[in-house]
Amino acid sequence: MQISVSIDSGDLPAFLAKLNRQVPIAADNAVRSSVAVLHENAINQMRGKGPVPASVIASRLRVSGNEAAASLWLGQLPVNAAFIGDLQQYGSGSLAGNQFFDKAFIVHRRGYDTLRRRKPEAKWMPSQKGTYPIESVTVPIPGQPNAEIIGNLSADHYVETFLKTLSLPE
Fold this sequence. Notes:
The protein is of the alpha+beta class. It has two domains: 10-77 and 144-165, no CATH class; 82-139, no CATH class. Helices cover 36% and strands 25% of the residues. The chain has three helices and ten strands; from the N terminus they run H-H-E-E-E-E-E-E-E-E-E-E-H. The protein has helices spanning 12-46, 54-60, 147-165, and strands spanning 61-65, 70-74, 79-80, 87-90, 93-96, 99-102, 104-109, 112-118, 134-136, 138-139. The strands form four sheets. Strands 4-5-6 form a three-stranded antiparallel beta sheet, with no helix packed on it. The radius of gyration is 26 Å and the shape is rod-shaped.
């Protein structure tokens, strides 16, 4: 990339003073904009890779940035299957979105519905008191976003935004 600027030599101190004020502002605007682009591109890459909707992926995605760097973090713990779509319970299991989970049932806890099922090794004993052990029905987060592709897009966007914000004479 090449940037050419032609200025009158008499205006050089004024130009440098103005440039000195504009560079930090342009850099800050470019970082903020690039972090937003990084977040959006990461979600778009993950969209459609599995049953997990983009809104759930977005809630698991953390992007932070400062003048030096931007970082991307995606939580990889499995998601409760109740978050992949509307829940319906049938005699043999439950349906979340368009995915059926055998022997699962809906439990309303703390203001929202979750999917649970009995642990496979749980057997009822006549002397056993209390409840059967249950476990959450989960769906894994599908894959990782390609960091190289979204990093390049974000870097290109940074340069473009920086140069747009910085007002150089023609």
